[in-house]
Amino acid sequence: MAQASRQRHFRHHKGTSTQRRLDSEDFSRRNLGPRQFKESSPRVTSDSSQPRSGDTASLKDELVRLLEQAKEAGSDKAKETEDMQNFSQNAQEKLLLACRMLSLESPDDVDLMSKTVFALFNQDLVKAAAVSPSNRLIVDTLCRFFVSALKQDGAWGVGGTEANSSNSSASNASTEPAERMKIDVLRALSTVLFENGSQVKDSLQDLFQVVVTICGKVKRHEQSELRRMALNCLANLVHKTGSLFSTLHERMYEIILTNLATTAQYEGTPATSLGTTRRRDRGSERKLISSALRALHFLLQEDKSLSTRSIPPLMNVICRFMFFTSENSSTQPVSSTNSSAFTVGVIQRSSYSIPANTIPLTRSTGMYSNSLQILDNSEGSYITYLSMQSSDSEYSDSDSSVLQAQRKQHDGKVRLNALLCLQALARAAPKQLQPHWPKFLTSSNSAPMIPGTYKAPSLVGLIGTDPIYNIRSAACVVLGNIMDSSKQYLAMAEEIGKSHTGLLALSERIGLMTRELHESIALAMTSVDSTMDQGIVIQMMKCCSSIVANCSYEKMKPGLILLPLRPIDKYLDSNGKQQLRSLPSFHLGSRCSRPRINAPIPTLGFFLEPSLQSAALVFLTTLFSNTSAQSDVRRSILVKVTDSEDKIPRLISRLLGFIEDAQIPAVVRVEAWNALRAIGQFHFEVASVAWTWIDTALANEQNLEDVRMRSAGMLFLEEYSKSGANATDPLTATWWKDVLERHVLKAFAEENSSIKALGCDCISNLPASVFNCLPSRLEMLIMSLVLGTALDDHASTRAAACRAIGVFILFPSLREDSTHMSDMATTVLDLCHDPNMNVRVRASWAVGNLCDALVLLKTSGGQGHVLDEILTLTFWTKIMKSALSICQDHEKLKSNGIRAIGGLLRVTFEGILERERHSLVKDAVYALIKHMEQGSLKGRWNACYAMQNVLLNPDFPIGSTAGTSYALDSDMVSWTNDVYGALLQAVQQSKNFKVRINACAALSVPKTKAKYGDQAMLRKMVQVLMTAVQNLDNDQGEHAFSEFQYRDQLEVKLLRCLDHLLQLAGGVASLDLEMDPPPLLQRIIASRPQNVEETLITSTETEL
Predict the structure, then answer these.
(1) Residue 243 · residue 302 · CB < 8 Å
(2) Among 387, 293, 299, which residue's Cα sits nearest to residue 347?
(3) Which of 770, 775, 777 lies closest to 812, judged by CA?
(4) What is the pTM (predicted TM-score) of this model?
């Protein structure tokens, strides 16, 4: 029962439709029967326009029946049947009719309507989430009805809310009927608004005004329940609406913070100064805090600008209520009127001025005596999060254990909602949150962490010691989200070798927080009871994985990354893995998580769940994948060998034990393969020592029926072969031959498409030198399998085959074979029109490599005859059309098409250029011009590089046509000015230095003055380049910091290009230009290669 009650209290935080069920158990305690409505007399009126009393009575009976049916259907899980859909439609019609016929002045009518609507919407019997005219009608009509009812409360004849306000000692159970009815109306309204806020239109302004008015009565303690329901309405109104109500967000934000501030002041009142009734009223106050934080959470989710504009007050709220306990608030001193509203009623984070030895630190006793103790390494003293809670002695003897349990659950709701607010803040503004980490992340109050100071509560403290497991899980998730969005910030962490008593740099403060974070999470992992809290252990492991994945250890002291591993290592014990096939069931996340059966305890001390060991193996994978601590991990873990004669690394032996044990669930064995894959990828030398045993495991996996296991083995082989190709001691041809025959080629016979794709990926890692050493039969078999796989029915397999072809097409032995080149080119050109974009991306990359291979055939000596044989007009046309088509495809493909055009035009023969100059060649040139002037940065870089390739073809027509076959058309080739204009524009306007470098390289390619056209074009080029050199010196502050690493290279390119043009033009005098300072001449000379004679043209020297 306690577990069910706890689930009801926290159900609305799970992001499902059950969020609508706000305090439904409190609602069910009151009389929901139809008797009170049947005894009421129908309203009679003499106005003939009003509905007849008999019709109204009949409608009331219908509503009563709906209410009873809703309660009966509450336990029915099959709500998607046709009967339930008909019931929902009928209920909507009755509700619409009731909104027109029932009297707003009758309290019985309003009460019946609110209870019926709440029951129907709370049980999901009426669904209006889908945007449609009918759903908008029902939502808007109900909102208008309830808003009008809230405005008519004075006419209900049951006593106004102000009449009995003097009775401040009355409990919530004796709240005046008018206020209780308003609470019911607001509760029903909140259920209607949940996930339906976007459908509120006509009644929005009236609804918002009424709700805000109720929320604004923060000085009335007696109306806390009323304000809570109004806050729930605000929360549900804004939920999943995005920016639809952005004009109202600021006002909502102010109302929420005002309610939190006032409630915090009330919670700070000492319990001894209140009577028993007022102490019990604290439960409603805690509910109010929880609802306000929930509304704040939804608001931060929908409007991220609130986080970025006002993060300090938000952090004040969150940090106060993250560690909220009513026991601790009852012992807080009364704050003065000038103190902050958020300095009372919560666990206080102490200041650094309080030394540890001035605070009595004693071990917590009782049921929490075995909880995690936060150690103070410097003084040897400790204090717990739970020991900060006071005893129950200040409460009267009439407080039962049930009330105490409810109080703790209400406190947990406050902490949970505060954590959700922190999570929303971390997702919306991670960079703005980072300076506030010392307030909540670690147990120290502010950076620097001075040794010997009091340890304040922290997020990690909640993970290790909070009595409610949902809070601990939520804290793990929040900490993981914070880490995942702060990798760049954590990369600044640095630890100094000696103690520092002065001010610390930001990197050193981050380093101290990073160390404390590792120590705290490791201590929490060590202290958790794994026999009962396996769900929490799994969340902690995931949190550790996020920490290790995002922290940088290059400037930290050795051994830090190993701290979380030590408590996790026990979950990889081979003595416990044999029990996985006969595991008991656990209620993970429940406070009473215990085995349902009394089974013998294994050597490890408890049963290991598959998800527990999977989480431990995921952490290992993350640990091995962190590139900033490879030497530390390798030195401390992977070098340890077993005691046997095999001398295999101990950890690899344990992973292979998981993989080869058929009794272990497949999910655990797959994660073991993933951990082994990380070792092969980042620690190749260590994995190569154990290759004999890994090879045996791979061979055994081929006989398994489980596709996941075979895929995991092939994934390891793909990463291992990739690392081996780039290793200092690369894999030999003998190794490749054995692996291809025993493992890789067998993958092509699999029916599963993913395994075929992994086989192609493995072959793609085959080096050219090794491929040439393979037997001819094996070479032919590989090519046949890859080309055949490119025609597979599955897109992933075709994409992997395209990647393999793109690699093979650059192999010298294959590109020099016209038959192989023709087969590979035909295959990838056809796949450029594949309906799957991923296939087209890989195929376009292979086409770019095809054109690069053609360039290599032309530039390498003695291979011209192969190019003549391959590059026929038909073949050239097919490649060019495919490249132009790629340039018009998705942005991911355009760069490959641009690269292909540049390479193809570089090797195009003069006859083809002359034949196609008015069609395909012209289209190709202007495609390059277009991408030089606009498009993505990658596209512009590739376009400038491709134009450089085009200009390297001596037969390419550009510049003056004098003495050429193009002289009959005009004096200048038509695209000359456009080509050079686009290159000059890139030099002048591009903010990326690499684009400028490629543009300068392209301008420097032509070797004759005629290729540049006329004297005016040369003069323009020299003038632009001189201006670019001057701007490079003057406008340094306008460029991004990341670009300055290419500044020197760009300067050299500009000066060499200027030198080249001046020599061709005959000096600046012939161009009617003036070269300002003589230092420019010296810089041009200094930029020349050393093997070039440092002399300028005589006319240039004379002009200078």
Answers:
(1) yes
(2) 387
(3) 770
(4) 0.78
